Amino acid sequence: MEIKKTKYLIIGAGITGLTFADYIKQDYLIVEKENEVGGYCRTIRRGDFIWDYAGHFFHFKTDEFKNKFLNNVNNNEIIEQDKCTKIIYKNNLIDYPFQTNIHQLDKEEFIDCLYDLFNKKEKENYDNFLDMLYGKFGRSITEKFLRPYNEKLYATDLKLLDKDAMGRFFPYADKEQIINNMKVNKDTASYNNKFLYPRNGAGSFIKLIYDRLSKNHILLNTKIESIDFNKKKALTNTGIEIEYEYLINTIPLNHFLEFYTDKDITLLRKELSYNKVLVFNLGFNKKSKYKKEHWMYIPDKSINYYRIGFYDNILGSDKLSMYIEIGYSRDSKVNDIDFQLQETLKNLKLQGIIDDTFVLEEYSTILMDPAYVHINTNTDVKIKELMKKLNDEKVYSIGRYGAWTYCSMEDSMISAKSLAEKLSNEK
Ligand SMILES: Cc1cc2nc3c(=O)[nH]c(=O)nc-3n(C[C@H](O)[C@H](O)[C@H](O)COP(=O)(O)OP(=O)(O)OC[C@H]3O[C@@H](n4cnc5c(N)ncnc54)[C@H](O)[C@@H]3O)c2cc1C
After folding, report:
1. Domain contains 51
2. 41 CA distance to ligand 1 centroid (A)?
3. Is the pTM of this model over 0.90?
4. Single residue among 166, 192, 218 that ends a domain in this structure
5. Residues 391, 364: one domain?
6. Which residue's CA is the closest to the ligand 1 atom numbered 5?
7. Residue 233 maps to a domain
8. What is the mean predicted confidence (pLDDT) over 72-76?
């Protein structure tokens, strides 16, 4: 058996694992089960089309990571866009978010939303996500958009989600903001609404990080199969035994906890709830009638997808290039891919995005499992307690899936950087 020794064993070469390596700089070994790095931030090329694993756009909140990105690529490789996002509501397009654009609805529906908004029963504390939606936005806004859309996305009963399930990603708005938004021209009011995207897909940002790392310290096509936490040894499917001092996990927590046999940890693992997202990337022979929209939200439950995106409108290309997202519950078997593809094509026609003259030139299918973790206060407390115990044994589980949270690529990078700095100081 081959034996390797390293100070920092990093499981997973997604954006989190690579960023940790980038900052810790030495004495690390990354083990990645796929034959390339990037995890969910990989990019796929087919014919004339460049696709991500569902749209992966950069909304940097820190200058540090924004500059790391901008300073290392040519200006012409970066696209900066003012977000143009819509909701397909009863065959009309209205601006997203729904709650601040109810004035774009038909008069009767608008009055219903406004009436319920002014008569909603706000509470000090909400029991769950659904309770929060009704309490903060009233019945009509909740039932016309927030409830059906989020039920499609999360593929679960919204009563099972924490009131803060979406954290800072939820577009909260109070009455004043909603009324103010009716007075302002949306196009000129899009402050804080820009995003950056590399012309060659999100994977090209990953490549920037990967290029800085020593390739001798990355094992591709290698899966961690078991870990002896007492002896600090991990075994790979290729028969390598890796002795480590610190273990940095970035694979989804539900899988990582399978390496433990303790009863409590097994119970916690079974409690972790999440959805899966089936993604179709579709490349057609020509552009659709939608030439400026970047992505759209679909609350209608008779339509199989909850969100669709237009890479061609972001990249300025001349053929319709889309991503389609379909939510599944944790326990669903995703064994209806062909059916879902046909449904998708049928629904794109129904919604007027394509017609019979469109030819599907290329497509790819991806299953993101897990995709959105279901945040739940009780489970969160148990996860935090477990993390403390693991940290005492020099085991750290970080990133969106390792830490079991809802966050962006940049947030995952920030967590990796701060852990690397903390551990460097322990030397
Ligand atoms: C639908 C969707 C859309 C999103 N859009 C955006 C967006 O627009 N902007 C944004 O900022 N974020 C977005 N995100 C979030 C983003 O995908 C994550 O924050 C980020 O990819 C997390 O990276 P990671 O490295 O922590 O995990 P991952 O990318 O999951 O990396 C984990 C790695 O571990 C490897 N691995 C797994 N098991 C093993 C094993 N046993 N042994 C070895 N290796 C293993 C995997 O192959 C993978 O490479 C989106 C997420 C979803 C689901």
Report:
1. no
2. 6
3. yes
4. 192
5. no
6. 56
7. yes
8. 84
